[in-house]
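The methods section describes the discrete structure representation at length, but only in general terms. Each protein is reduced to its one-letter sequence and a matching series of backbone shape codes. I believe one specimen quoted in the main text would settle the matter. An entry of this sort, consisting of the sequence and the corresponding backbone structure tokens, reads as follows.
***
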Amino acid sequence: MVSGGGKEPLEKAMASDWAETIDRFQQAAVDSRLGIPLAYGIDAVHGNNRFYGATIFPHNIGLGATGDADLAQRIGAAVALEVRASGIHFNFAPCVAVCRDPRWGRCYESFSEDTNIVRKMTSIITGLQGQPPVGHSKGYPFVAGRYNVIACAKHFVGDGGTEKGINEGNTISSYDELESIHMAPYLDCLYKGVSTVMASYSSWNGCKLHAHHFLLTEILKGKLGFKGFLISDWKALDRLSEPRGSNYRRCVYTAINAGIDMVMVPYRYKQFIEDLISLVESGEIQMTRIDDAVERILRVKFVAGLFEYPFSDRSLLDTIGCKLHRELAREAVRKSLVLLKNGKNPGKPFLPLEKNAERVLIAGTHANNLGYQCGGWTRYWQGSSGRITTGTTILDAFREVMGEKTEVIYEKYPSPNTLSGQNFSFAIVGVGEEPYAESAGDNSELVIPLNGSELISTIADRIPTLVILISGRPLVIEPWLLEKMDALVAAWLPGTEGRGITDVVFGDYEFEGRLPMTWFRTTEELPINKGDNSCDPLFPLGFGLTYKKENLQSK
């Protein structure tokens, strides 16, 4: 079973509410004729993000900026605990897409445009599932125990390479390019014992992946030796025909014979069952194909210990949003921050800021909006605005750390009187993208939304300004605007722990983040990646300044 992007069991549902609901489903399963337990799945892609009060970690693009494989593994372990606390066994993560174009609406779900960085960050699987023992067979699923979850490497394959970054679009490439750029991270996932793989909505050279026998069966299951199960994406079979959902029997035939073992069918399950039985009885789907799928699914359920421990462990409830996990998320935030500019003149850095400044202005659409700070896949599929969960906004964080005598003035859109009538030591301007997920995030313009550029310009004309950009990808920064800023930090989608930002901008910690994506100058250049002959970016892949005045790119 799976929870999609719809309603929770209750508004502001707690983990205990979920556990009670899922345990009822599980009881019905184990009381059935065969007694086979359910593997209940959820998209916990940056924490157990559907839960009110859960720890929300930076999205993958921020983790890619850290380049810290050990950190990713520790985050995986924390997420696994918070997921298992709710009675859920199966996490549809991580996304190991290699995003080659920031116009893609799922860019933030990718660790990087660089295959090597994505491969490095597959360590999160070891956190989620546990460390396989020495000699573990490559491709065989592994789950260490009751404090771990079934992980899912997604979306196989090429989802980050579609033409013009269109979600669910078409990746045009040779097989060698597909293998070296997009498939390579899956090799690392298989070595780490990833239990499941999810097929991509997208196509490769015009053929949809859910219908691609060569890639799903001959390559993934055959050449690469994957022994776990291959799951479809949400309603993916409907997408195999035009108009969507038409000729459903043919869609079932195509996907199952291509190699899909488990199918996400949220609504048409009765028709799916009828069509599948009919196809088997007619011989259009061989019983050996059904046996193979069942064997793979049962293998994962046995490996995950579901037959021994099918129900939730209520002793884990205290891990949801616990201090230890929030400190880990805070560490991830500070390590993910990329310093793109520090001072208008060489030798005169603007950061670190002074905690005991006399008067400070904090402004912008993202300075006090936890939902914007977390991004999509937070409480809801598309995310939302405001105090949608528990956490610390940028404004909260600054108020916590500024000196007792410092006057902190917050206005989302400062009035002319505010800007002209007071002597501010500096301004903090938080701007960026509104939350989005999947196709809703496809964007060919990539300007700073909500008049962000105008707001920065208005404030920076009058007050020395640090801009904190909250976004799931690089955005257009015009040269004239960059010139006006005194400092610029790319904070990505940091999640609930805003104190990670103040830890660094006040100098308590060093900037460590490096760009996981090439920062383009104009959208006309896209796609632009390291190694392109015409590559002349605003900031190259790997760029990041430090207080030590060295560019991290050379490290």
